[in-house]
């Protein structure tokens, strides 16, 4: 089975990037949001990304136009009926994701593969939202931000995911130029299982006055040779997203290292979510 038509549900930070990389390899993409303005905004972000690539000489104007023409923004979930693959990239909340999957399951062809971009939620729990025959074609396909730049995908099989489905998405990942790692269906999978305790400990160090946000980040960049400091990275990811992932990890594994720090809870409650709101552990633009 080849993937020629992709339905991306969610046009935000991850969704528009996922749509862009598929369109770039010649795939027809439907970019869906229940609010059409948000879907159009996601397509506009793709257009801006492509325009920057043209300005840098990395893409021709013709290739930019062809890629953008392959992306259709819509608020009609019924367009999933023409898809070979659905990739869900909505907010990291099991209730939100499950409701969407249930809706799309009723509209999509039986042969359509369902892939969730969740960074932490159990694939088996999400698969419960679709009918039993679909579960063989349900799996996790976790991209990393920014999607056009980051070369990694985490592939997570559920208990019912079949070999044919894994083979199709592995082939697709190769076409996208992405390297695949495979994780068991455990809270946080591989990358966030390793990353989130680091971010949480940096937050606790800041909370306890061990150092300023700048000094903590500089310590990681210069002392550990990390490309980005942990607090700056948390701001980039989104503090609401970090909080959601830590809650999943703590609920699922119980270890204190995964308990969300109080300062993170406070910042999210105040609406300070990082780069996307202009304030988190740092203030933006910096």
Description:
Helix 1 (13-24) crosses helix 2 (36-55) and helix 7 (191-207) packs across helix 9. The protein has helices at residues 13-24, 36-55, 61-69, 94-107, 123-127, 163-175, 191-207, 213-223, 230-237, 239-253, 262-269, and strands spanning 5-9, 28-32, 71-74, 85-88, 113-116, 138-143, 152-157, 179-183. 46% of the residues lie in helices and 14% in strands. The termini are far apart. It has an eight-stranded mixed β-sheet with strand order 3-2-1-4-5-6-7-8, with helices on both faces. With 286 residues, the protein is of the alpha/beta class. The longest helix has 20 residues, at 36-55.
Give the helices and strands, then pairings:
Layout: E1 5-9, H1 13-24, E2 28-32, H2 36-55, H3 61-69, E3 71-74, E4 85-88, H4 94-107, E5 113-116, H5 123-127, E6 138-143, E7 152-157, H6 163-175, E8 179-183, H7 191-207, H8 213-223, H9 230-237, H10 239-253, H11 262-269
Parallel strand pairs: 1-2, 1-4, 2-3, 4-5, 5-6, 7-8
Antiparallel strand pairs: 6-7
What proportion of the residues form beta strands (DSSP E)?
5-15%
Mean pLDDT: 97
DSSP strand count: 8
- Order of secondary-structure elements: EHEHHEEHEHEEHEHHHHH
What characteristic shape results from the CA principal axes? globular
CATH class of the largest domain, named Alpha Beta
